[in-house]
Amino acid sequence: MEYELLYIIPATFTDEDVGQVEANVKALLEKSEAVIGETERLGKFRFAYPIKKIRHGHYILVMFKAEPGQVCKIDESLRLANDVLRHLILRAEEAGGKKFNLVQFTEVNLEAKDEQRGLRRERTGKTKEDQQKSSEEIKSGVAVLEQKADEENGEEKVEEEAPAVISDEELDKKLDAVLREEA
Q1: pLDDT, tens digit, for every residue of 107-117?
Q2: Which residue, among 183, 170, 174, has the nearest Cα to 147 in the 3D structure?
């Protein structure tokens, strides 16, 4: 049966080391009586998340023929290999042949300027100024509700300056208190 093996070698290895790891994997496959068809280096790519504190890796694709019982042994040997970060073995017909396209991972910078974060603003539909305005409206609404609650309880409201900044947790607590009093 024909299989496809995709494995990742850490980018901390030099090209010579990558060649040595490829030779080791090839020897491992031959030891398991697999017939190697084609080996292809797909390139060095950035991971979406660090794997064992490593952010880049060399992707290698190997096509081989082996008996299904031997594939389990190959999988176990690759899992124990320290030079291989990750690997995946699929039947060739499941893998879809050469119809794949590896795309370089691009990281989203959340600290970028507003012009560079246009996509994020489109999703939420609000700019930073709109969000701040909404927050201020909510805070003023809380102040009105507190004043109404005080008037209903017969307390006189002494004009005090509200704190300039209120945390979300404090805001939630005040809203909960006011809503409990009205209910």
Answers
A1: 555 665 555 54
A2: 174
For residue 7, list its beta bridge partners. 60, 87
Burial of residue 152 (CB within 10 Å: 0-12, 13-18, 19+) is exposed
Domain 2-95 of CATH type 3.30.70.60: yes
Q: Residue 132 half-sphere exposure, CB side, CA atoms within 13 Å?
A: 5
- Give me the sign of the Cα torsion angle 104, 105, 109, 113: positive
Distance CA 4, CA 121 (A): 42
**pLDDT tens-digit map of 36-95:** 998 888 888 888 888 888 889 999 999 999 998 899 999 999 999 889 999 999 988 877
> What are the residues whose beta carbons fall under 8 Å from the beta carbon of 151, sequence distance 6 or more?
157
Q: Give the range with max mean pLDDT: 6-15, 136-145, 161-170.
A: 6-15
